[in-house]
Amino acid sequence: MYNNDKLTVACEIHEGRIYYAIPLEQVEKRAAIKKIEGSTWHSAIKRWSVPDTPDNRSKIKQIHKGGVPPQEDVITIKKHSQNKDWLALDLPVHMLSAWLPTVKNIHGRRWNQALNVWEVPYTKITVRFLEKYFPPESIRWGFSLDAHIPERLEGTENIDKFGKNTPNVPPARYEAAVLALEQCLLLQRYSWRTIKSYKNSLRQFIRYYDD
């Protein structure tokens, strides 16, 4: 609760951060607090926290009173707070029906329940996919892309549609040919599902005639 613009029981302040509990069913409030710079979800204590600043106190007060800012049709992508090789993709609740199937087609993507974000590899493949399948106005980058990022991450080759690792399969002898095919099909604007199917077929063909 709030008393004379001061935070009391509902919001606790500890070591320079404001801790605030939001019931799971209040999706709009959760979406609003996630947009505050530096917001963090703490699964152990079931609290959100944000840096304790006058501006953030005002924002939390607005959220607490139900004054949730208008929803934006924007998917936010930031560098992962715990792993430099991954990005955190925040897909707003009201955009799930339109864009969740596309997000699930990102190579190597996985859901992080603790952080409430999709984790996607910080690779050229991911960037190409986002630029091809999402309108520029629907993506908000929270950082500047590095000049040198890998084509793909090791260990993401065998991630299935549920974001889990499948049994390890050795790469095809001429895996470079599979990558070349992908590049060609991207330039010809084939759908991601078609590209994935063609790559799998070529990889199986190469393995069958490995010698």
Textual characterization of the structure:
By secondary structure, the protein is α+β, with helices and mostly antiparallel strands. 32% of the residues lie in helices and 19% in strands. It has six helices and eleven strands. The protein has helices at residues 27-34, 54-64, 96-103, 124-133, 175-187, 192-208, and strands at 2-3, 6-7, 11-14, 17-20, 40-42, 47-51, 75-79, 86-90, 110-112, 117-121, 139-141. A hairpin with a 4-residue loop joins strand 5 and strand 6. Helix 5 packs antiparallel against helix 6. It is elongated, with a radius of gyration of 21 Å.
Helix and strand string, N-terminal first? EEEEHEEHEEHEEHEHH
DSSP summary: helix tally: 6
* Strand arrangement across the biggest beta sheet: 9-10-8-7-11
Largest sheet: 5 strands, mixed
Please state the structural category. Answer: alpha+beta
Rg from Cα: 21 Å
